[in-house]
Amino acid sequence: MGAPLISVRDLTKTYQVGDVDVRALRGVSLEADSGEFLALTGPSGSGKSTFMHLLGCLDRPTSGRYLLNGRNVASLSNRQLAHVRNHEIGFVFQGFNLLPRTSALENVELPLLYSRGVSARDRRARATAALEAVGLGSFVRHHPNQMSGGQQQRVAIARALVNDPLLLLADEPTGNLDSRTSIEMMEILQRLNTERGLTILLVTHEHDIAEYATRLVVFRDGRIRSDQPVPHRRTASADLSLMSAEPDKEALTA
Question: What pTM did the predictor assign?
Answer without folding.
Answer: 0.91
